[in-house]
Structures are given as structure tokens and as C-alpha cells.
Write a structure and sequence with these properties.
The structure is a homotetramer. Chain A is built from 12 helices and no strands. Chain A is mostly helical. The termini of chain A are close together. At the A-B interface, helix 6, helix 7 and helix 9 of A face helix 2, helix 3 and helix 5 of B. Chains A, B, C, D: Its main location: membrane.
């Protein structure tokens, strides 16, 4: 296939050992991606391009990061893949930390490059989610509801296109970006359309804006992450790191299963070397099984079929 | 191929036994998809993003549902695939029922999350297709004509991209969504651009709006469904469940053929087990035939060629 | 690969024997496609969606027609593929005729479904290219220049994505549509952005508008068709029907070569049966050659590799 | 696979011997592409379509040029691939020269086809980057910062989608174009969103505009090119022409390595014939290695495995 399509595994559910260079590079990707996404999305001021700049900036940075870090770029996405068993706890904590630091640096860039913007300027600063962007007459419950529905939409797209098999390959980043365009195109005038805790925390930290509503946004994002994971687990089953799944699939004890969910590393007895993760182990098992079936059928086996 | 592309069969013409978990999940998908699509599409109030939010929300929810339910999300699409022989009657009735319930819940969500909106508020409520959205001077016949042309466009895209072979794989949901953007971009100002009976019935049930014109929209959608199916049947032939096709292809009696079109299950003599549907049966036959041809040619056979 | 991608051959350079059912269906596709494209593109009246409706309506109808008629939908495209040797003369004449008839029916649909529009209403009718859409101060030479540059862009995209190998498969219809969006987004305010003789002739025939400038548009489209073909022939060589190519490649006499360019049928001695076209003949030769090379290398040959 | 997807190698990092016809054609492609891109992008005057026309015109011309010249269309991209070791020095100089000449001809076309535009009209001419497009209150440092961030985004997308393996195949031109849409959608009102030295130099040469700020734009583009290359080299390693890489990979001396980076031709001892470039040499080595491994495993080898 010549490497021109993202494997469904890679997008949103790929991870490497914490000590590997690839993982350091992944963290850097999440940092840079969220930083520039926050900068571009925060500085757009007109109504006509607001949803487009946010959605397209997200899409292009997911494309850029997809084959390295999986292109989460959103603590709600990372949190959801964590609880659903696709991402280990340690990795998730580091991702979320770097995403938030990225958003803070993005907001600092806004303060540096927009005339009249300056640190600690309070509500109304570029990119803030505060009372100046919340629609007239919207109650806090409605604000919460809007952000839940929109974030649920975005994370459902992530699961269906980038985690489920068969997914939608290299379409995934585009579709995730377009889901932000669609949500921001209507919800933008009611909530500003955050859909991402880092986008709330970054400007809050730099501009001291939206202190009184930030928790509503963030709780909504986390609830949506749980909802999307629940439905995906019902539809397609838990991820391979979830103790519910790994105890059944690999016959692990509860302690082993929880440890694997925390560290991402399968117990030593399943690994040929130190850096193998659960995907490698499952792939090895699948290959072994395929080989056995092929031998039973008496058919030739191809080393690198597609 | 690593599962990164939707098989043409899957989109819009895939179905499972009514009693299978997959089918229950499919119904859930249609319900959630239409609910959120209706919510996002109904709440957009400005002229600049109306067509985009509707088209992109449709596209992303078809992407999300495509590999599970086929991503119909529209009773006119389901009705068309039913009469063309791609979807069984029982399945279609349940799909259409869930799509309409989804649209009603979507309209309820609108009532809950938009300030000043409330149940039974009548014409002019968000998402309604009533005299307040119909263009000045447009006659009822012209309203009917516009909705026929636009819905015919949308369903033709569904057939050409998602049912015909070769189709356009993972492009299909995007192209269907863009066809709604194109139609709503011009027809929106004349009819509001429904193209979907559920989108008409949902708000009507919740807000009591558009009572006097709803039937025009719905009849137009059904006529467009028949037109698109007729042309597709002329171009590419009937679907495998159509009695015209199954009597010829499998040698069924008229009664057997009609029963299969109703239930989706081929007569027992074609099935190895209870849950096999017509696609499985035809695939088995095709595989058998391919194997025979290969043996004649004396060539090696690959178990899982791409 | 499961048929989910358009083969580059199919898009824009596929054709069948004039007497085949496929060819009749192709003509029907060109007719319906141009009709609805003209209708949707003519009725959009606001500046914000004009380029989008035109570009997306073109894209979705090329998607719909691509695997049947090749999705020309534009006499300038057909004319260019004719002179470049990708499409036979008889087929091209019939395509262009049906495209123009489609555009006329599209304009009639406009007259029927837009309040206040009526046949023979003259300049200013919806979808017309006349002095009411030509930008203030634009000379006839500048009008000509704009349409040449824009149409050249559109046809170059057709060649590079849909005729050249490797091309861009199922991206092609989208890219062609986006090229119309880009051109109409800037040139729309100067010329109305026709890029298609049928779009000029259809409204002219129905509404009697633009009589004094139609020839400028059409000549510009034809010149752009010649320019795009010239550059493509320089870059990638003539098409297989071009006498320059077929005399060299198949060793035909001048008379045989011209006859093949007119009818699309290779001389009898190259055909196994009556309906084989040049693509089939060349594919047969290529397969034969591949088989010979494989035998030389002593490698196994796969019947249906990918 | 039928040639319907761009190989990741082809886009942005493909090159041919300077003396080959393909290279002449590549230069022509870069010239025409930048010319029409400059023309379309310069003439769009309304705020609603500015970012779209620029981004989509870039996307479609990259699609058109991708399989021939690699679709650079931007001296900053060429410069970045040069210093990162993906493009030879001689080729890069000729590319950049033709891109600038293309932009000048594009600006001349603007002067010819826009009423009231004329050569040497100074600041405010269509397509100029001068004080009339720079946002009120923006300092020169902020102008520099904006162009660095935006150009860095565009070139990062080029690397991640079109140079890295696995990349995103035929999605690449679209994603690059959308990155320009996203950047211009917000940065357009501050800097005009050039992201491309040729787009600055072309109008400057023809209209004599922006003399006092052009150097800021161009230095920003070059810095962004270096930044994007540095990060890519850290993440994925240097390109095959970089002396750092070729000394290690092919065991070249420093002089040989530098000569190869300048000319693009590997030392004679690695070539079977005069026109082989580094990609051919590496592909030959990879094939050789694959063959040896297959023989060790005792598995059959396929000649043209997808």
C-alpha cells in the first residue's frame, strides 16, 4: 500500500513505551499541535471564519500528528481513550499535561502577536470562554448541555473513524475537524464551542478570564468523554488495556490487568523484549493464529500481504 | 488493507438479522445519529452557516454510523433502498421508526437547550419547516418540485457512491453531506431544504409547526425515493432482495422471494446457519465460483487476497 | 480493494460502444447530471453560497456519474478529451448534444420552480451569463481572458487527476468541484464564472439572455480546452485514440487511425469481439506482455492481484 | 492499485535528473502552477472568499502538479526540503527561480485582466503585501511572528503528510490547501497571509508595492522553513540527500556527500545508468534486502506486490 494511508490503529489509539524516543516525540507533537491550534483558533475574530479556522486548524494538526502521537490534541479525547482501555494511565497523564501546557503557550503567543492583547487582561481576551461569548439568556445548565452534546459528537467521530475497525483511515482527521466546524457553526454563538478542556484552561491561565464558568465547560467535556466511551464499549467492546478486556483476552489476574492499564506494558511473560506494547502482543497472537489456520487449509502464506 | 476503507456493501445496504445484537446496535445508531443531526441542524440560525452545519452534521454522523447501521439517517433513503431491493421490509420499518423517534428527541433537545424555545410553540420554532421558512411567492407545487429535485440529488449520490460497485468508499459520507450543502445553499431560502421526512416530523411533533405543509414535503421525499430507485434499477439492476432479482438469481418462487424481501432471510436451503443474510449467501456463491475458475486455470488461490 | 476507488481510466476517459446499453446509460447520466447541476447552480442568488453551490453541485454529480459516463458534464471537457485522443468523435458529439439538452432542461426547471422567473424573460434571468453579471469596466478581451484562465484550470485538474496515471482516484470529482469554487470565488464577480459552454447555452436558449456575449464565453472555453490538451500531450503524451499515438502504438495506417478516432473501435484484427474498445485492446496487450515477463523471471502469476 | 493514489515519495520529495525531459516538465509545472495560483489568489477582493480562493487554488494546483514536479509551488517549501536533504541544490535553485518567474507572470496577468489595475501602480494593487493589508497596530515584530507561525504550520503539514512515511497520500494537497485556508482565515486580516516568498516578490516586481516590508515576510518564511525542517529531522531523521544521512547510509566521503546534495546524483559506483537518483538507489538496496530476507524464510516472492 506504500504507506499512504493511516492504519486505523495508529490514529488515536497508538502508544509507545514511556522511555522510548517515539514517546518523547509524541509529547512534543501534542504540545506543538495544541499550541498552534489554540493560537489560530483564538485569534479568529469574525463570525464567518470562526468555525472554519477552528475546525480546519484542528484537522490539519491531527493530520500532522496522527502518525506520531495519534493526534489527540484534546484532554477529553485522551481521557476517553484512557477509561475505554485504549490508552495507558501514565501516558494519558503526560499527554494531558503537555496538551494543557501547549494551550498555555498558545495563549501566550496570542498575547504576544495581537495588538492590544496582554496577559491578565481578564474577560473578553481573545480565545477566552467567558460571559462575553456565552449567548444571551443561556442558563448554566443549557451551557453544560450544549458542551456535552457537541463534545460527545466530536469524540464519537474519533471512535467510529479512528479507533473502530474498519474505520475511515486518512479521512479521520478531516472528519474530526469537520465535526468541530459543524458544532461551532451552530453552538459557537451560545457557548463559543470549546469542546476541549485545554482550550478553556490555556486562556484562563494567561488572561485570567472565565474563572466563574470554566468548571462547567470542563465537567461537560469529561461527561461527554465518559458517554462516548460507554456507547463505544457497548457497540464494539472495551479496548485491549481495559481490565475487563485483558483479564478475559489474555487471562491476566486483576492486579496484572490494572498494572497493564496503568503502564501500558503487558506482563513480561507475553513480551519478547522490553518495549513491546499490547498492540504488538495481540498482533503476534493474531499472526500465530492466522499461520495455524493457513497450515490447516494447506495454503501458501504471504509474509507481507498488503 | 487494514480496515481503513468502508466496503461499498457496508454503506447504505448492509443489514443483519433482526434478532442479532448488531441490529439492535444499528437501531441505536440511527436513533442517536438522527437525534444529534436534527439538534445541530435545527439550532443553526444564521444564513452563512445553515447549509454547512446541516451538511457537515449529516456527513459526520454518516461517517460515525456507516460501518454499523449503514448510516441511512433518513426515512427517504431507507424507503428507497427498501423498494429497490437492498433492504428488507421489517428492518426498514424499524429503521424508519427509530429515525423518527430520534428526530423527535432531537427537537426536544432543541426545546431544552435554546433559550425562549418551548414545546408546542407553533410555527417559527427552531428547525421547523413551515410558512415562516418557505420563500415568498413560492407555490405549493413549486415547493413540491424543489424538494423532489433536491432529495433526488441526495439519494442518487447515495446510490452511486454507497450502493453501486465500484462506488466511492469512505468518500461516500462526505459526498452525501456535501450534496446537502449544495442543495441547502440554494434551496434553503425557498423551502428550508428538508430532504428528509424525519426532519419534518420531529419538529412538527414537538413544536406543532408546519401542520399545513408537512404532507407536501413528505410526499416529495417519497416520490424522489421512487425516482432515484427507478433510475438506479435501470442503470445497475435491482438489489439482491428484490423479488425481480432473487427469482432470477436464486431461482426462488414468488412466495419465497417476497418472504425474503420482507424478512431479509434467504430460504433455509441456502443458509449454513440461521443468521446468514443474502449478502453472505451471494458471497459464498461468488467465492465458490472463483475457486472453480481458479482451479480450471491451475493457479494458486489466496485465502485473504487484500 | 473491493471496488471502493475509481480507476483512473474510468474517470473522464472511459467509453463504451455506441450501440451498448452502457453508452445509452452514459448519455442519460450526462443529461441528468448537467440538468440538475444547471438548476442548482442557476438558482443560487446570494454572494456567499454562489461559488460553493456551483462547485459542490458539480462535484457531487461527477461523483454520481463518474463510474458510468466518466462524469464530463461539460462540453469543454468532452471537446478537450476528443482532440487529445481520449474520446472518440461520435461519442463526443452525442455527449455534447446531451449536455446542452440537459442544460436547456435545467433552465426550464429554473423557469418552473422560481417565482417570477419565466421563459424568454431576457437578460437578468437566473443563471444567465449576460451584461448584468459581467463586472463593471471589464472589457470583452478581459472577459475572454478570465474565462480562458479559469476553464484552463478546471480542465488541467481533470487531466492531472482523472486522466493521467497515476491520478488521484476518487479525489478527482472533489478536486474538480473545488477548482470551480476557487475560480468562481474570485472570477464570479467579473464574468459570473461559466467555465462550461452548456451553462451558457442552456439559459440563453430558454431565457433569451446574453445573446451579445455568449460567443465570447464559448470561444474562451474552446481555447482553454485546446490549451489544456496541448500541455497534457506535451507532458504525458497523446491519448490512445489520437492518430499520432495509434499509428505508432498499434501500427495503424492513417485511414485506420482516423477511423478509430471517429468511431472508438479499433480495427477488427485487434478485437476478439465487436464491443471491445481501445482500452480493452491495450489492456490485453499489457497483460500479455506482463505474462511473458513473469515467465522469463520464473515467478508465479496472480490472476487478480489487487 | 491502478495508480489512483500518490505515493508518499512523489509528493514534495520527488526529483529527476536535471537533463531529463521530466525535469523540464517539472519546471513548467511549477511555473504554470504558481502563475495561476498567484492570479486567482491576488484577484479575490472580498473577505468571505479570500482565504478559500487562496487555499483551494493552492490545493488544486498541488493536485495538478503533485505527480510531476511534486507540487512545491512555494520557495519556502523548496528551501526547506533542500536543507533537510530531500531535494538537491541545483534542482532547488531552478525550482525557486521558476516559481518567482511564475508569480511575476501571475501578477502581470492580474494587471492585464483587472480593470483599473496597471503595472507600477504601487501600494494597494491587487495581491500586494504592503501597509494597506497589514492590520492596524501590528508591529513589524508581530508581522514577522505571524508569518513564521503560519508558514511553519504549512510546511509542517507538507512534511507530515507528503514526505514522512506513512504519510497521507492523495489527501496531502487538500490538507496543505486547508492549512492555508485556516491560516488566512485568521491571519489574513493582520498580515494578508502570504506564507510564500513568491507571492510577495511577484506583485512587488510588477506593481512596485510593499518595498518596505517585503524583507520581513521573506525572512519569516525562511526561518519557518528552517524550523519545520529541524523538527522533522529530529522526529524522522534527515532526508537521503543530506550529507549527515548519506555519509552514514551509503558510506560516502564528505566531498561525495556534498556533491550528491548539490547535484542529486549518487556517485557513479551506485548507479546502473546515468539517470538514477538517490531514490532509485535506495529502492534497489531495499529490494535486494527484501529478496534476501525472503530467501532466508523460504517464502515465495511477488514481483509486484501492490
Amino acid at each position: 500500500m506504500g504507506g499512504h494511508a493511516v492504519d486505523s490503529d495508529t490514529v488515536f489509539s497508538n502508544y509507545q513505551a514511556v522511555t522510548s524516543k517515539t514517546f518523547v516525540v509524541s509529547l512534543m507533537c501534542e504540545f506543538i499541535g495544541v499550541m498552534v491550534f489554540t493560537f489560530l483558533g483564538s485569534t479568529v475574530s469574525d463570525k464567518v471564519f470562526g468555525p472554519w479556522v477552528n475546525g480546519l486548524a484542528l484537522a490539519i494538526w491531527i493530520y500532522t500528528a496522527a502518525n506520531i502521537s495519534g493526534g489527540h490534541l484534546n484532554p477529553a479525547v485522551t481521557f476517553s481513550t484512557l477509561i475505554c482501555g485504549f490508552y495507558p494511565l501514565i501516558h494519558s497523564i503526560l499527554y494531558i499535561f503537555l496538551q494543557i501546557v501547549g494551550a498555555i503557550f498558545g495563549a501566550l503567543l496570542v498575547a504576544a502577536l495581537i495588538p492590544d492583547a496582554h496577559v491578565s487582561m481578564g474577560d473578553g481576551a481573545p480565545g477566552c470562554f467567558d460571559n462575553t461569548v456565552i449567548g444571551k439568556g443561556l442558563t448554566h445548565s443549557q451551557l453544560f448541555g450544549w458542551e456535552v452534546v457537541m463534545t460527545f459528537t466530536l469524540i464519537s467521530v474519533v471512535y467510529a473513524c479512528g479507533v473502530a475497525k474498519p474505520g475511515h483511515g486518512s479521512f479521520t482527521p478531516l472528519v474530526v475537524g469537520l465535526s468541530l466546524v459543524a458544532c461551532a457553526g451552530t453552538g459557537g454563538k451560545w457557548t463559543g464551542a470549546a469542546l476541549n478542556p485545554a482550550r478553556v484552561i490555556g486562556p484562563l491561565a494567561v488572561f485570567k478570564c472565565g474563572n466563574n464558568v470554566a468548571y462547567i465547560y470542563i465537567l461537560a467535556h469529561l461527561l461527554a468523554a465518559v458517554l462516548a466511551c460507554s456507547i463505544f464499549a457497548f457497540v464494539s467492546g472495551w479496548g485491549p488495556l481495559s481490565p475487563f478486556q485483558s483479564m478475559k483476552q489474555l487471562g491476566l489476574s486483576w492486579n496484572e490487568a490494572v498494572l497493564m492499564w496503568i503502564t501500558g506494558s503487558p506482563p513480561k511473560r507475553f513480551q519478547d523484549n522490553d518495549e513491546q506494547n499490547i498492540t504488538d502482543v495481540l498482533a503476534k497472537q493474531a499472526k500465530q493464529q492466522e499461520r495455524e489456520e493457513a497450515e490447516e487449509d494447506g495454503l501458501p502464506v504471504h509474509k507481507d500481504q498488503a
